[in-house]
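Q: How would the structure tokens look for this protein?
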Amino acid sequence: MFKSFVMAAAMIVSASAHAHTTVAESLFAAQQPYIQEAVVAFGLDWKVGQENNYKLNMGGFLNGSMKMYVREISADGIWMVQDVDMMIQKQKVEVLIDPSNGQIKKMLVNGKEQEPPKSDFELIDQKEDRVTVPAGTFDAIYLKIKDNANNGQIAEQWVNPRDIPLSGMLQSKADSQMGKVTIQLTSFKK
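A: Here is the predicted structure in token form.
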């Protein structure tokens, strides 16, 4: 189970904005495979009202926030929404996910339909760890991931999908064209 957990967690976030047209798209792009793997490893037991809130920093000078939440569960699937508010850009990504296999059925970015992102990640390192973020101190799995789809950029991630809803992301540090992107969990609702 630990191996499935790690492989699922390895796909969470590498926020490099150059491969996608918006910050929100790039933040979501790396979560897609994780969601699909999580369905296999744990099932997709999301509920309306589950929510994760994050603080974002790009390059040490651009601050913002991100809110992820389950908006709706219908016969068509689960609608997850990701609102990103940076000083220079606001984006909304809405994704309809098939709960039986984690596949994206539909993706809207600022109301416009988009092709789901593709990713190619390579796990470089993994270990059990503990991390402190604004939301508290948590046991986590530390992952170091190479994003082959984005010129081999490196991301470090701390995840705990057992205790944190949706993607389970606690913290992420990733390379981008604007410098290091840091994401930290500030609060969550199960």
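The radius of gyration is 15 Å.

The helical segments are 2-9, 23-29, 31-42.

Upvote if useful.
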